[in-house]
Each structure stands twice: as C-alpha cells, then as structure tokens.
Q: What sequence folds into this?
C-alpha cells in the first residue's frame, strides 16, 4: 500500500527512454566533479561511459557562493593548484557556460544523454538553458524545499536520491514533487560505503511506500552489490566513474574505473536477459536432453 493514496506509477519518461519495472535498467555514469575542473577529462569520461554502453552521464552543478556554507568558505584547502580557500577551490573546479556548452555538444554528437544535480536554485535556472531531460536531487539536497520547488516548477522528471535521510524527510520531499515524474534512488551517503550499510532491500521498501519507480545510487567499492540491486528491482543504476581511483579528489576512491564500468554494464544486461517473463516453459534446447535423461513421461 502506498503512503500517498494515489495510483502506483510504473514508468517515467526520460527523453526518449522509458524507465520503470520490467524495462531495461537506465544506467547512469556519474561524472560528478571527477573531471577536477578539466573539460578534457570530462570528455574522456563521457567516452568511457559511451564505450561501456551507459545510457547517460551525470554531472553536478553548483553556484559556490550560494551553496558553500559560510563557516567553510574561508577554510584553507590543499589542492593540486596550491593552497586556497574552500570557496576558491569550489570555484576552481566548477564548470560554467563555456564548459557545459562543450559537454552538451559532445554528448549530442556521441548520442548519450547528459543531465546534472543542481545544488541551488540558480543552478536549476542554469541547467534549464540546456534543456536537459531530467533533474537529479542529490541526497544532500533532499531537505532543501526551495530547491525542490524550483525543480518541480520546471515540469521535468526527477530522480531523487535518499541517502542520509529519514522516512519522515523523504515523505516531505515526495510531497513537494509530482509522483508521476518521480524516480527515487536508494543510497547510503558514505564514501566508500561498507556492504552491510547498503541496505539494498530498501529498494523494495521505498517502492511499496511511495508507489514510484526506485533505482540505486551506489557509493561502494566493487561491482557485485550494484549488480545485486538490479535483481532486487532497481530501475536505474548510478555509479561514480573515474579514469583512475588514485586521482586527487573526494569521489575518486568510491568510483568505478573504465574496465569495471564495462563489466558492470555487461553484467546488468546479462541479468536482464536472465529474468525472462516468469512463464514456465519447456525450451527447444531442453527437448533432446529430456529424451535422453527422462525415463518416465
């Protein structure tokens, strides 16, 4: 029974792709800020995602002077570009109009969807200028009502991650969004996350409670548990990607390298084939074996 007394939503349209139960898993390569402020690294990561067979790449968009907490802004930060304040560091790695215009063109040419997680209201307005097909609400932003209302006002579909959130906080966030355009994501916001804290069964619990499609945003090391999320009904899978986990930056250690991403996509697609339709049948490939091994019948 859903928390909200409305019909259960089975699919959400993301551009030309339908996302929902029984459909191919929507596989998202989360580039985030793993480009380290370098557009060439961003292009390489888009290439990695496309070569692996991902459906989309995702970035993050911030207006640093809006979303960096005042108490952190002036703190010193050691970076590859020298010591600078935390605000200067955030501004240094943030992409603007020029970079996102290049990303938009590059993804269009490559035939892969791109979208982003806005962390503040001005970033929603920024991304709207690129006509991205969907918005992502990061777990850290789930309680930002102004941001949720700004995203809701765009009329676009939304993926909302639920890391570091209570059910009461998720209830409130869901109440601000249109369920017919909403996909939730089970997530645990620890980088990297231990297997015993991934709580993959919450995929089913969230589906039952809110009656909307639910996917999985993983921050673990390794691939097995992400593959397991598909078996538990995840309609999308999102993992951070990197060229090299040893690169400088906060998210690289919990990210997937190119070869791992290719294996992950391959294994997800294999599992989809293995699901079948649930109707028990005798396959043609079994007939000769049946004649050989069955003594009766």
A:
């Amino acid at each position: 029974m859903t928390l909200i007394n409305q019909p259960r939503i089975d699919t959400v349209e993301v551009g030309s792709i339908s996302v929902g139960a029984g459909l191919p898993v929507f596989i998202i390569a989360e580039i985030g800020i793993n480009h380290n402020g370098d557009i060439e690294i961003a292009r390489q990561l888009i290439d990695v995602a496309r070569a692996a067979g991902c459906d989309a790449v995702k970035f993050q968009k911030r207006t640093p002077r809006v979303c960096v907490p005042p108490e952190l802004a002036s703190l010193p930060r050691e970076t590859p570009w020298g010591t600078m304040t935390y605000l200067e560091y955030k501004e240094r790695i943030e992409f603007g109009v020029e970079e996102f215009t290049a990303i938009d063109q590059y993804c269009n040419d490559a035939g892969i969807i791109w979208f982003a997680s806005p962390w503040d209201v001005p970033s929603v307005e920024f991304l709207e200028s690129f006509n991205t097909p969907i918005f992502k609400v990061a777990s850290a932003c789930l309680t930002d009502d102004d941001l949720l209302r700004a995203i809701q006002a765009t009329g676009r579909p939304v993926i909302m991650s639920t890391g570091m959130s209570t059910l009461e906080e998720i209830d409130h966030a869901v109440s601000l969004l249109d369920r017919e355009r909403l996909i939730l994501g089970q997530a645990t916001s620890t980088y990297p996350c231990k297997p015993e804290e991934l709580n993959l069964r919450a995929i089913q619990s969230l589906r039952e409670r809110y009656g909307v499609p639910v996917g999985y945003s993983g921050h673990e090391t390794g691939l097995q548990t992400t593959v397991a999320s598909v078996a538990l009904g995840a309609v999308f899978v999102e993992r951070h990607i990197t060229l090299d986990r040893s690169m400088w930056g906060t998210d690289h250690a919990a990210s997937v390298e190119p070869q791992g991403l290719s294996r992950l996509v391959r294994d997800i697609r294999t599992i989809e084939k293995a699901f079948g339709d649930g109707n028990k049948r005798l396959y043609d490939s079994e007939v000769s074996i049946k004649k050989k091994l069955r003594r009766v019948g």
